[in-house]
Amino acid sequence: MTVRIHRHDNGIAVLTVDHPPVNALPARGWLDLAEAVRAQGADPGVRVLVLRAEGRGFNAGVDIKELAADPGHGKLIEVNRGCYEAFREVYECPVPVISAVHGFCLGGGIGLVGNSDVVLASEDAYFGLPEVDRGALGAATHLSRLVPPHFARAMFYTGRTATARQLAGFGSVWDVVEPARLPAAALELAGEIAAKDPLVIRKAKESLNGIDPVDVHRSYRFEQGFTFELNLSGVSDRAREEFVHGDSRRGR
């Protein structure tokens, strides 16, 4: 996986993830992403962090094929820890994190976006949790920060997706723009924040986290326990096998 950092003179750091073909990250990739976010937040010269991706979509979650190829549970433990760390670092980053989302934002992508401070999206962006079709659970904590509770439940049970326009209607997406304008729109918003007093903004982030009604770390960790339970039951292995074999039949 490639993680690129581009620093602007005004204190904006742009973190770009590029892991073809669909930005479905392996276990190591989630840990690398967590470390990259942590390093930017620890830099006193950074005032805002923009999280974006290259390729067909923002994020397709975890690499199911990596999990399916593991005869034990080692990779599952590693990827669960990696997702937890990546989501946590986005949430706890001392400066605001803006997610600039294009194309698909699925599975673990919801965890990243749901824990971000601000979400911008292109017209072609869509969001969802296909977890139930993969024999897993998780990131409902973060989906519930993006859509109303009953809508989140329907999405979770069905695996259906929601558009950027729908999320904008719920108030969780700040703006929806043409795909070609997404990078510039993210920099414009980041620049507006970066122009503020950096100490005030860092304290604002800390204070907003402090008044959150849900402990997102504890809530997500609770969800992960059910993923382990499903794996021990054997249903997750069957779901991953079907996913991998289905991909093979489609020539992917």
TrEMBL record:
Keywords: Lipid metabolism, Lyase. InterPro entries: ClpP/crotonase-like_dom_sf, Enoyl-CoA_hydra/iso. Transmembrane segments: none annotated. The keyword Lipid metabolism applies. It comes from the Bacteria. Pfam families: ECH_1 (PF00378). The keyword Signal does not apply. SUPFAM superfamilies: ClpP/crotonase (SSF52096). CDD domains: crotonase-like. Belongs to the enoyl-CoA hydratase/isomerase family. This is Enoyl-CoA hydratase family protein.
